[in-house]
Each structure stands twice: as C-alpha cells, then as structure tokens.
Write a structure and sequence with these properties.
The complex is a heterotrimer of chains A (315), B (52) and C (66).
Chain A lengths: L1 H16 L5 E6 L8 E5 L2 H4 L23 E5 L1 H12 L8 E5 L8 H7 L4 E7 L2 E6 L2 E6 L6 H4 L11 E2 L14 H7 L3 H12 L7 H5 L24 H14 L9 H5 L7 H15 L27
Chain B lengths: L10 E4 L6 H18 L14
Chain C lengths: L7 E6 L3 H10 L8 E6 L7 H9 L4 E5 L1
Parallel strand pairs in C: 1-2, 1-3
The chains are: A alpha/beta (315), B mainly alpha (52), C alpha/beta (66).
C-alpha cells in the first residue's frame, strides 16, 4: 500500500510539473475513519495530502463529467471501467485525461465494520491484510478478507482496463467467483416473496439520493426524481415511490453499471442497493455477453441493434 | 420487472403492423385475458393520498 | 368482485399498432373495452417510468406495442 502512495505522489507531481494536467483527482484522508474523500490536487502541496488505503471506495470517475481542464485521475479497476463508459458516452475526451491506474487490492466495507462495534470507532489502521480498529477502550484486529466490500469480494476486474501510467504490477484477478449467487436466489422466489423481500430491503430508505450522487453514471441535468412536470416519482417516503425510485435508478444504470459499489458504500442506512443494479448487470451479461466499460471500440448493447437481439418477450 | 416482484403477465409487449387489425384484436383479447386472470393490481399501487 | 374488469393501459406506436387499432375500428371489429390507448410517436419513446407511473396510478396491466 505505501509503495502505491509514493508512486501516486511521484506520478502526480511529475504530471503537474510538466503541465500535462491541470489537476489530479485522488483521495485524501477523511475527517472520520474509513471515509476517505476525493481530493483535487492542483499544486504539489495538494499532492502531499494524497493517501491510498482500503477506504478509497468512492468512484472518482464521478468527478470527471462536464469539466474543461486536463485531468489526471487515479483509477482502480472499476473506476477505469467507468471512465471508459464516460468516454463512450462523450462525457469527457480521452485526450484530456491521464489515467493513473492502480491495481486494486479491494476495499473494506465500512458498514460491516461499523455494525461490529457498539461504540464509535475512532481510528482504523491497516497493516498488510489486517485491519486494526480502535475506539474508546477497545482495540480489535480483523482480517481484511472478512470485511471486504461485497462487490470487491466478487470482483473479477481489479486491474485498470485503460491507463496511461500505472503505480504497480497488476494484481492477480480472482477466478471462479460466483458473482450472482444472491441474484439467483431472488430470481427463484415467487412474486409475493420477491415483493416482500424488496419491501424489506428498502424499508429503511430515507430518499436522500446519496446512492444517485455517488454514482458516476448519474449525470443527467435533471434527474427523474427532481422532475415535477410531470412528476414521475413522488418525493415522499411512500413505499411505492421509494420502490419506483430504486427501480428506475437501476434501469438507468443497465448496461453501464460496473458494480463499483459506490452506491452501496454511500448509503447512510446500509441498504444493499446493489441488489437492484446487479440483476440488470447479470441480464446484460446473459443476454448480450456485455460487461460495461471493458472496451472503447464497441458500443453498449442498449444503443445498438443486432438482428439476433433476444426478443422472446415480444408477442 | 419480474425480478422486483411485479407479477409476470402485468406487462406485455407486442409487435403489430398497421395493416394487422386482426392481430391487434387477437392481442387485445390475450392481454385482457392474462390480466383478468391475475386479478387487480394491489401491490404496485400508490395508496397514499396525492398531495398536489 | 365477479364483475371486476381490468384496466389496461396500452402504449401504441403511432405508425404500427395505433394504425392497427384504427383499422380495427374502421373495420368494425370487436375487442374488449379494457384497454386505454395512449399514442406514442414510436416505441422508442417508451420509458420504464411510463409503465411504473401507469401501475402506480391504478392500472392493472400495461401493454406496449410497436
């Protein structure tokens, strides 16, 4: 990890010094443990604030849209796939980007760790594959592999797909991972049970839209939830409105979602919002053999037509 | 849709040319029968009063 | 509830099914009165929010036809 950060700082400083970029987007330490925040470095002094550890789960591709500067960006596997999606969708030009690839060693799940302790966590330190959690009067060592973010545990694209610079050797990709166990479980339920399952899942939702804001795909000028004429989704916490919001959010991400987990990480209520997007991600893979953000050459399945597109659902 | 608990059969898709009025009638019959068999939509219905 | 009749909101493409519906009417064919037709310029205009809105506002079924 520390080798990464030295390299990140070195590359960032070099890019800024040579004026190849106007700024570098990276992470700095947050004010609370396990919450690193994005950092826009324009000078070498800013670069000193950069950190890299297992709390860099935010998807930095989110900060690339509608910008004019030349940007250097630090990208994990999933970030790089979202950057590719942005380039395909013409949100940013490839030649204005310098992608600093970071072979990702998986992020830790702050929700999971927080629920393990009753009192406030004051400090979280990482040492190799151990996580040391400290609070008022307690200290506990956890295995990192036990507290990974769910999407990281099943990730099969840890190395950046596109990069101009890279901070380390590629990590070994996970193989033989069952990515869709939970989705299949839900698919097997009868309709009433599914209904109850999702009722339960979203019952805690406070409609704060943190999942939408954290998502690099959600860049519409006016989000459908903010439209008022006509109003597609009520703004209350009516269960149906909440459900509509989650349905539509998932639909908007279909064929584009890289399962980066930023939505789930951002949720203040710890709702597993990936249960929605993951189904559509699975469908895209099953129906079109498509994984989002893997290549710049191909158009995504939902904006192309092929005569062999599946159409059994049409009478 | 089905994944999220809406009954299969609530939502139908079809492809009918403007010359195929017989097919149109046929599909209307089928869709109506399918929805009738399912009964009223009680789940995905907003029950809370609409605030203007 | 034996006399319950479903309300079906149908989204018909102007150029295909809407034309077919028109022809069915002109030809005096009979079909169930449960469908409420909404004409859309093309099925490409269809969006998930339309049928969610339809169901939410009390439709029992939704039919999209191109």
């Amino acid at each position: 990890m520390s080798a990464y950060i030295d390299k990140i700082k070195e590359i960032s400083n070099r890019l800024l010094k040579e004026s190849k970029v106007d700024m570098v987007i990276g992470f700095r330490k947050g004010t609370v443990p396990m919450m690193n925040e994005p950092c826009f470095a324009k000078t070498p002094q800013d670069v000193d604030n950069f950190v890299w550890d297992s709390n860099c789960g935010i998807n930095l591709a989110n900060y690339l849209t509608n910008r004019e500067e030349k940007i250097g960006i630090i990208a994990k596997g999933c970030d790089s796939r979202n950057i590719v999606t942005h380039i395909i969708e013409n949100k940013i030009k490839r030649d204005r980007l310098v992608i600093i690839g970071v072979p990702c060693k998986a992020m830790i799940d702050r929700h999971k760790i927080e629920t393990m302790f009753e009192t406030e966590i004051q400090d979280v330190i990482e040492a190799d594959d151990k996580i040391i959690v400290k609070g008022d009067g307690f200290e506990k060592t956890l295995n990192k592999s036990d507290v990974l973010q769910e999407n990281c545990a099943i990730c099969i694209h840890r190395n950046p797909v596109k990069h101009d610079e890279v901070v380390g050797d590629p990590v070994e990709e996970q193989k033989d991972v069952d990515r869709y166990e939970d989705v299949r479980k839900i698919e097997a339920m009868p309709p009433e049970e599914k209904w109850r399952y999702f009722d339960d899942l979203i019952s805690a939702c406070i409609r704060c839209y943190a999942c939408r804001n954290a998502c690099p795909l959600c860049y519409c000028h006016t989000c459908f939830v903010d439209e008022s004429r006509p109003q597609w989704v009520g703004k209350s916490q009516d269960p149906i409105d909440t459900r509509t919001f989650h349905f539509l959010r998932a639909y908007h991400c279909s064929g584009r979602c890289t399962d980066c987990g930023a939505c789930e990480r951002a949720c203040p209520m710890g709702i597993k919002v990936r249960r929605f997007t993951k189904k559509l991600e699975k469908d895209c893979l099953d129906l079109f053999g498509w994984e989002a953000g893997m290549t710049l050459e191909e158009r995504p399945p939902l904006d192309t037509y092929r005569s062999d597109d599946p159409d059994e659902f049409i009478k | 849709m089905e994944y999220m608990g809406i009954e299969p059969g609530r939502l139908h898709f079809s492809w009918i040319s403007s010359a195929e009025s017989t097919k149109f009638v046929d599909v209307v019959n089928k869709v109506t029968a399918a929805v009738k068999a399912l009964g009223p939509n009680n789940n995905y219905l907003k029950t809370m009063a609409k605030v203007a | 509830m034996s006399d319950w009749e479903p309300k079906i909101v149908s989204f018909l493409c102007n150029w295909c099914s809407y034309g077919a519906a028109d022809l069915a009417g002109v030809s005096r064919m009979e079909y169930p009165p449960n469908v409420r037709v909404i004409r859309i310029p093309c099925t490409g205009r269809m969006s998930p929010k339309f049928f969610l809105a339809a169901l939410r506002e009390g439709a029992d079924g939704v039919w999209v036809s191109g």
